[in-house]
Input
Amino acid sequence: MQKISALVRLFLPHRNAVLFILLFLSALTLGPRMLNIDGDLPRHLLMGKFVLDTGAPPTEEIFSYVYENRPYVAQEWLAGVIFYAANILLGLNGVVLLAGILIASAFTVLYAEAFPRNKELTFTFLLMVLGALVTSIHWVTRPHLFTMLFLAIWLILTDRLYRGIRVRLWIFPTLMLFWANIHGEFIAGFLVLIAYIAGWFWTYLFAHSTTALETGKNLGLVALISFAVCNISPAGFRTWTIVFGYITNRYLLSRIAETRPPDFTRTEYWPLLILLGVSLYLLITKRDRFSPPQFFLMAGFGIMSLLSARNAHLVGIVLPYVLSSAITGISGFAPLRNIERAIRQIESQISGSVLPVLLTILISTGVLLGPAAGFNRFEPTVFPVDAVGWLEKHPQSGRMFNAFDWGGYILLHLWPEQKTFIESHTDVTGEATRKYETIITLQDGWQDIFDQYHITWAVIPPAWPLSRELIAHGWEIIHEDQTALILIKNN
Output
């Protein structure tokens, strides 16, 4: 084979870099969607600003007057700081670039670990792409993107520990310390540990001679230390109360579309259906290649994905990695083998993957800041951009009622002068959501809630029945655009 020149070797991407670049660029093209699919990001940006300005997360509710002065736990405060830092550096383009790096890195580290074990270049690559497609329904600028990367690293390290490969145990609590302060789904790390500990016990009971006692001790030690460390956060031990209180609150979960079971009649859930189908096929045909912990992982995370579509980003990380151990020797098609052999020969002359990845990130940054400036923004058709701009010039006094998804955006621009009735992180008990639902559906007592909180103005969509009802009760329109209506109570 002809030798590749030294200059070309520097820029030719390794297969790991190809996967990273593919997913990174895919995420960037979805930047506007990631920013505007829900109202969480503005609230995270405000939290990051607050922490950097004051040096600590708030301990009392300071954003919603419904829960004013009640104890508050800023569970995802560190994610807010990181998002806000990216926003300071490069604006919303920085947030999207960060999201792309997190998504691409998660699957790249999985691929880099899986391929050397099974030597199946094509099928391992396709498994990772399928996993990425499964998670793509949750490619949103929220803290769960950090969870995807942390879960990938945690899964790899736990698997190495189980297989007897030396792992520095201090890495686990260090990772958990960050994870627990970034996102509430740090609990996924403990689910992985539970699966491996259960698998170790199973093997110890039924195949004692093949089980190392030291492995069980290390897994138990990691679980204990990580549990202690995850409580080093503003919430302390209340973290677990908050997490389990939320996931067991049937009222709140019933009001959130993504917590419902996936609807496989919708095309966005077809990758998940395919992944579950591939898992079932390999379990039946290659079951001897799975270890007991892998059985528990597949069963546990598979069931979680069927119970709630919100878990798609977790199963999209776990299952491709687990399945990769069962596909050794699965590719017997001669032309495919020849292509893979040629790729390996080329890669044997490649110097590395760092430069192609860095160049991709730098060029993408330049494009977003230059020719594509304004591509990533909060869309005026999604958020009350014009209405908030008007309010910044014409501040209103008194308490405001607002649409749920707009709370974070309003706070980002008008807080601390204005607090909201509700926003995406206010309610963990259901109290505010029930009152909000009563108001927007005009149920009996909605006016009493307005009177209870002395609400004198509102920022809501023009098409809402509440808008027409307030106007019928004498409220005056002081601003109107295609997205939002600002109404004030006429005394």
